[in-house]
Every structure is written in C-alpha cells, then in structure tokens.
Write a structure and sequence with these properties.
Rossmann fold; 10 helices; ABC transporter ATP-binding protein
C-alpha cells in the first residue's frame, strides 16, 4: 500500500444547518477544533449535541436536508474538504479519510458478501492489484482476531455486532487512510467486545501512524483511548484539551455535570447526580446567549445575551463566561 503520514486537521468556524418547516436551523454553530497529527481525539456529549454532524463534516458528507453553510475543514494533504466535490471528494473518502459508522450494518450491503463489497471499494478507487487488497483485508481481519477468509465470504447477517464493527474498521483502513473517524464504535456491544474494539483501535492507531477521531457518548471510552477530548453541547465545542486535564479538572459546568452524572463503582452511589433538564433540540437552541444557560448552576446575566467565545487557558479552550470563577474540583480518580 502507498506510504502516508498522520495528517493534522483544522476545523474553523464550521456552521452546519438543517432545513426544516421553521427554516434553516443550526446543528453546528461556528465550531473550531484542531486534531494534532498522530493523536486520538474524542468528542463527547449528550445525544443531539452535534457530534456525528461534526464527524461527517470531515468527509463533507452531511446529507440533505443538512448542508455545510460556512467554515472550513482543512486536512493536511487534502486541503479544505468543504471545497471538494465529485470524483475528487469520492477519492478522498476511503483513500485518505476512513470512516467507521455508528451502526456497522449501515455501512454494509446486505445483498453482497463482505469480500464483494471489498472488491467494489477497490475498483471505485482504481486499485490495480485487487488480490493484494484482499490480502491486506485478510491480514487486518486476522489482527483483529477474525478468520479473514470466513468473514470475506460472509453476508452481514452472518456476523455478530462485534464482528461487523471490526469489518467496518477493516474497510476504513484497507486503502491505507491515515485519518480515521469512528462514530460510536462500541455502541450496543457487550463489555468484552467493547474492550477488544478499544484495544484494536489503540494498536492500529499506533502501528499505522494514524490521526484518529472517536465520537462517543461514553466518557469511560474516551478516558481509555484518547489523548485529547472535545466536549460538545448545542452544536458548540464548550471545552477542549488534553483528556487527563479535561476529565481530571473540568472547567466548563457542562463537563463537570457529565462527570458528576457517571455512576460510581464504589463508595456512595448517591454522589452521582443527573444533569437537570434536557439538551436543546434544533428547534429550541436559543438564538442568542449561552446554549447551556437553562441547565447551568453558574448562570449570570451576561449568559442570556452573549454567546461565550472559546478562550484559551493553557493547553485548554473553554467557552464559558463563568470559567474564571473558583469552583471545587470534580475529579473522578477512575479517569485520571
């Protein structure tokens, strides 16, 4: 396979809107995020926070009624993918950017074996040596503890959820993509299979020299595998920095609330407290002010009218008017 490198990614002022009867509503509003080359970055947040929309934007794959309205996604070696289209964009997907979908079966054709889908992928990217591609796929599946020959001859319904997830990882890597996006890679998997998937992600990331983005609602997953962590709420990145710092001493009240809501494995189980209220939907995101203010214990008058801009605090960025105020640490030792 062609030699490659771990690319850096710079998302700048990204706005994604969805067309509704009420007009175009923002799913992402001016998002900025940097993925350093060779790192694993996690995105966490409640459902509807914009995590998957941001991930799809890295492939310029937001589908109607959604569209990228403004901003850029600059990837080393590719340029701004928002400006790519047609064959140029098709070649970038899979060849330079691999994507593992949230539900693995959604990326597999139920009418074709995995092997036939692999060959289709190779032909669509003008791979000259298809037998070598099959050999690479077998090797990847073998590294993930699967019988490559059997899996390639199987239809999706003949594979378990964990096996389909590993097939998705194989398809994302087989063309030697060095930017890989995994959308909820452990959802609906048992704990043993989840641990296996996370081990594979870390090993392949290290051995192949990847830049990896993992979307997850599970802070434990993020703590296990990521170097950096971005916390999203209401279509915005509200906190971003090294994982140990974000989880060990969270600055944004939403990050603190997420960590406080995690059930404890020992001690007083009553210490876990759910966040009050519900996250906003497309139709309820406020037009001005902080999107988190209705659920925030640190709400101030300025929060009603001014959307806080991300500000740098050492290696971390935080978007919160109250971030400078002293707060008690919410350290969860399991994640430090």
């Amino acid at each position: 396979m062609t030699e490659s490198f771990a690319p850096g990614v710079r998302v700048r002022d990204l706005t994604v809107v969805y067309r509704t009867p009420a007009g175009e509503l923002p799913a992402l509003a001016g998002v900025g995020l940097t993925l350093a080359p060779g790192t694993i970055t996690g995105i966490v947040g409640e459902s509807g926070s914009g995590k998957s929309t941001l991930a799809l934007s890295l492939l310029n794959a937001v589908q109607p009624p959604g569209r990228i309205k403004a901003g850029s996604v600059d990837i080393d070696g590719l340029g701004d993918v928002v400006q790519l289209g047609g064959d140029e964009l098709r070649r970038a997907r899979g060849r330079q950017v691999g994507y593992v979908f949230q539900a693995a079966q959604n990326s597999l054709n139920p009418l074709k074996t995995v092997g036939k889908q692999l060959l289709d992928l190779g032909r669509s990217h003008d791979v000259a040596d298809l037998p070598a591609l099959v050999g690479e796929a077998r090797a990847l599946l073998g590294r993930m503890g699967l019988d490559g020959g059997r899996v390639l001859d199987s239809y999706q319904h003949e594979l378990s959820g964990g096996m389909r997830q590993r097939v998705g990882i194989m398809l994302a890597l087989v063309l030697n993509a060095h930017l890989v996006v995994l959308d909820e890679p452990t959802t609906a998997l048992d704990m043993i299979t989840q641990a296996t998937i996370l081990r594979i992600v870390k090993e392949v990331h290290r051995e192949r020299g990847l830049t990896t983005l993992i979307v997850t609602h599970d802070i434990g997953v993020a703590a296990e595998v990521t170097d950096c962590l971005a916390v999203m709420y209401g279509g915005r990145v509200v906190e971003h920095g090294p994982t140990t710092a974000v989880l060990g001493s969270p600055r944004h009240p939403y990050t603190r609330g997420l960590i406080r809501a995690i059930p404890r494995l020992s001690g007083d189980i009553d210490e876990a407290r759910a966040l009050p209220g519900r996250p906003p939907t497309l139709g309820t995101i406020p037009a001005e002010g902080c999107v988190f203010r209705e659920r925030c214990p640190l709400r101030m008058a300025v929060c009603d009218t001014v959307d806080p801009a991300p500000a740098a605090y050492g290696e971390r960025t935080v978007a919160c008017h109250a971030v400078g105020q002293p707060v008690a640490p919410a350290v969860r030792k399991e994640y430090v």
